[in-house]
Amino acid sequence: MQLKRTSYGIAKALIVALNVLLSALTILAAYGGIFDTARMQIPAIIAMTFPAFLILQVVSLAINILWFKRMALVNVATLAICWPSIATYCPIRLSDNKSADADAPTFSLMTYNVLNLNEYRTPATDFGYNRTLNYILKADPDIVALQECADISAGASITKSQVDSICKRYPYRSMGENGQSLLSKYPFKKLPIDIDDNSSFNVKAYQLTIDTLEVTLLNVHLQSIGLTDSDKELYRQLTKGKTRRDELDEIKTGLLDKLSAAFIARAGQAAIVRHALDSIKGTVILCGDFNDIPGCYAQRTIMGDDMHDAFREAGKGPAITYHANRLYFRIDHILYRGPLEPLKVSRPKFPSSDHYPLIATFAIE
């Protein structure tokens, strides 16, 4: 009898310890983005696992409700603490659209990393036209902020009729030498910005006139991880559970070290972008490829106290935007400030690039 009581006590203590450990890691993953990645990178790496910990937390809650009801309170408390991060990762709403005043002008904006207008998987010759340009024409947003697009005529299987259609649809255009391009139905002018472009950090600024509102648009592309093909293959094997012991050191040097270096670089880049934002007056939309997750340190730095996350306010669901190499994250973002109200932010699942686009519809208040 005494042995049974001892075994029960050990089992109960182990269950409590596992639940507490899971909750602690879930909270750390939820708020890993508050830590300055220039100084420490481990919390940011753990933050990338937040969706997995969230699923484990829900599974643990279901188990505890059935067999360990008191421990379910720990799960509920953890989910409540993590709710702001849950709402950022996976906005939950019943309706896809928010209503606006009937007389409020509206406009739509797409941000899209188009992989230099090449096909991600399927050979472009299988279609005889460029699917990405075709999709942009079909979606018909008013403003298109492109990353990794130096010229709309340079890419896979681009036809003359597609280029002509783009030029007719978007009479105001700016092609970027480092890949940041803009297509617009509204007139705009390029603005000088005190940021040096390079292959891993691109920012372009424009002044658009939308209805009667002057809007400054910043199109950004922050530091990528820079994984090689061998790194990506190693990661795929890791996520399939096929990694050998002798590959663990390679994972550290090939993946974790590169992740850390990218976090450090983005911290500095985000500070530069925030400094630029502080010098800009009025209404601003900032969008592009952040190469980092919702709630990350770079996004928090850029947002400061005055920018808002359009997807959190008008998006729905988890909505990943990068789908290559089993790296399923939402790393493209749309931020704004000023008299704008996001009515809807969608993530069409169109696979021609390694990114999916984000499309936001705004009302001018």
How would you describe what is shown here?
It contains eleven helices and twelve strands. The chain has 365 residues and is of the alpha+beta class. It folds into two domains: 2-89, no CATH class; 106-364, Endonuclease/exonuclease/phosphatase (Deoxyribonuclease I, Chain A). The strands form two sheets. A six-stranded mixed beta sheet has the order 3-4-2-1-12-11. β3 and β4 (181-184) form a beta hairpin.
CATH-defined fold name of the largest domain = Deoxyribonuclease I, Chain A
CATH superfamily of the largest domain: Endonuclease/exonuclease/phosphatase
Unreliable runs: none
The level of helicity is 40-55%
Please state the average pLDDT score: 90
- The figure for the number of domains is 2
Helices and strands, in order, run as HHHHHEHEHEEEEEHHEHEHEEE
Q: In the CATH classification, which architecture of the largest domain applies? A: 4-Layer Sandwich
Spatially, the strands of the biggest sheet line up as 3-4-2-1-12-11
Q: What spatial form do the alpha-carbon principal axes imply?
A: globular
